[in-house]
Each structure stands twice: as structure tokens, then as C-alpha cells.
Design brief:
The protein has a 5-stranded parallel sheet, with helices on both faces. With about 130 residues, it is an alpha/beta fold. The protein contains 4 helices and 5 strands, in the order βαβαβαββα.
Length: about 130
């Protein structure tokens, strides 16, 4: 079963994502982080790397783009999917993470699950929705 590491400063969204993913039963939750700094610290301490990191972009301490970049510098094989309400594209991202898929808020549960599946199956560099 694929494992996911969820990063979002909105605790309600963290809980919602965890609940949806638990109900679907397709993924293990490797961990959760409520801030950018927490995400970096937890990722570096993980004995087993998650198959995918779900990364919110807008966070108060360190934005998700910077966090994703730092995680990739630490682990070049890290799979990351950005989640944002912003109108950003892959060409706007630093080169280290320009291949990550981007899921735009708001999205349906179906879109969320589909995006995770695509990201895990190596569909890089495309906006999913």
C-alpha cells in the first residue's frame, strides 16, 4: 500500500484529508505536518520515505514551494504534489520542483483521489485540475 505524507497549516484540512484517505482504504498515512518547518523536520527523520508528499503551498512559516525544494534537495527521488488555490504553473516553479503535479483548490474528492493516483504513477509536470 502506498504511503502519503500530508502537509497543511489548516488543521481542518489535514483532518479531512486523513479521513477521506482512511475511508478509501488505498493509502497509509506516513505522517502529517502542520507547518513547513515541521514538514522538513519530520521528513528528514522518517525511517521509511513516503511514496508521495501532499504539500499545501500557502503556509505562514515557510511556504510549500520552499519546503518542496528543500525536501528535494535532501531526497532527489521524493514525489511531491502541490495543493494550492493560487494560479501557478510548473513554469513558475524552481527547477528542482518544476516536474511536480499541481492540484488546484477547490477540488472534489474524486479529483483528489485521481490526482494522487496520477502523481503516484509518475505523471509529472502537469496540472491535474
Amino acid at each position: 500500500m502506498d504511503s502519503l505524507f500530508i502537509v497543511d497549516d489548516n488543521i481542518e484540512l489535514l483532518c479531512l484529508y486523513r479521513k477521506v484517505l482512511s475511508i478509501c482504504g488505498k493509502y497509509d498515512i506516513a505522517g502529517m505536518a502542520g507547518s513547513g518547518r515541521d514538514a522538513i523536520d519530520k521528513y528528514k527523520k522518517m525511517a521509511k520515505r513516503p511514496d508521495l508528499v501532499l504539500m499545501d503551498v500557502n503556509m505562514p512559516d515557510i511556504d510549500g514551494i520552499t519546503v518542496a525544494k528543500e525536501i528535494r534537495q535532501y531526497d532527489s527521488d521524493a514525489r511531491i504534489m502541490l495543493i494550492t488555490a493560487e494560479l501557478i504553473s510548473n513554469s513558475d516553479l524552481p527547477s528542482e520542483i518544476s516536474d511536480v503535479p499541481i492540484l488546484r483548490k477547490p477540488f472534489s474528492i474524486g479529483d483528489f483521489m485521481y490526482a494522487i493516483g496520477r502523481a503516484l504513477n509518475g505523471k509529472k509536470g502537469t496540472h491535474i485540475f
